[in-house]
Amino acid sequence: MEALTNYWSNRIRDTTVDGGENTMTTIISNELPDIPRLYTAIAQWGACMIFLFLLPRRFRGVKLAAACAAALGLQCLLLMLTGSIKVYYLWILFMSAAAGLMVLYLFSSCRVSWWEACYCALQAFVLAEFVTSLTWQVYCFYFYQNLSTVGGLPLFFLFCISIDLFYWWLLHRWHKDGTVLEIHVKDVGTAVFIALLTFFVSNISYIPNYFPLVTPFTSGSGESVATLRTMMDLGGLAMMYAHYVMRCEMHDREELKIMEGILESQYQQYQQSKESIELVHYKYHDLKHQIELLRMEPDPQKREEYLEGMEEEIRQFEAQNKTGNKVLDTILTGKTITCQKYQIVLNCVADGSLLNFMDVMDLSSILGNALDNAIEYEVKVEDPEKRLIHVAIFSQKNFLIMRFENYFEGELDMSGGVPATTKEENKGFHGYGIKSIRHTVKKYGGAVNIAVKDHWFDLKILIPMQGRES
CA-CA distance, 96 to 117, in Å (whole number)? Predict the structure, then answer.
């Protein structure tokens, strides 16, 4: 312990007495070795990996591995170039460039905007600062007589992996995989402020190593310098995490509000379809009387042609879905009319009585969103003969199963577990139809499964039927 005390005390380079008075000015000497740049580079790369597995990714497999390896190599190369820099401003410039590389890495590897890439990279930067500072302080405390970059690697990797995994777990509790938080400029501004404040205060005691400067916040001993840096990095990381949690909560509230709007919209569509179908019913009965009158037409050929056309229209109406559930019948009839407009074949085999336990708004949301999603893809299929939608509703082993299948062309990106939108407008609202279905099904203790195979999109809903009253 005496040797350790001498080690820390040797960091005081010079002490002078001003004019014989008891006023002392202390200038810090950074005899505590700088954190190896290799540690900093690996920590920054590792912190970015946390967000890589939280955000929707652009690449998978070999491409993703190659992008990660290239990012690690560039980060190490850039930081290793700063090892001999003794000019404070150049060191700041290189650290800024390292942060810029982190932003570029996340933006190029994930399906996010520049704002979200900046926001996540700044948080990763503060996390990396904390990991390297804590690891190096602990290593110097226990192994000060045999300090070496290679010797500290086992401890560094232990701390880095443990802290990164713990922080990933903290974030994952709030941020579901593949979710885009729709970060705005003010969020990035807050992150920049926290990162700059943390970096400046945690490194303020190292400024005298580049040019003489003594401030009320400059530490007077090596031990307190390291502790100040570590604690400030921890404080900055806590602020970043708190802001991130707040942003996730805001995103969840906005998403819930949108899904409630979708639910209400689907219910309104159901009500409108119901009213329209009632009017058709009245028209149907009127047509039956008109047919009787038309049979009195004196020209037999003209009369038969006219009657056959009207009877065909009536047959199409009579062939509307009669499933045993009025909500399902209404929605299927309305969507069938839409499908006829776009030459889409909609086949349905359903036992509607199985759905009688469900709330009208919930059922209209599930059916409306599922069919709207299918119709949206079928409209884009060029060949009308391939525009197919299959709906099946049945029970199996005490489970209600609702299955919606539709044909699609091209590649379907399932980022975040939902099909990526092909619309250029309102990309921020991508996937809310599927999310609304999942939110509604969850109320009944059910689950939603999505599969894509051989150009068929398969949406399957399972809800336990045990104890349900029809």
Answer: 15
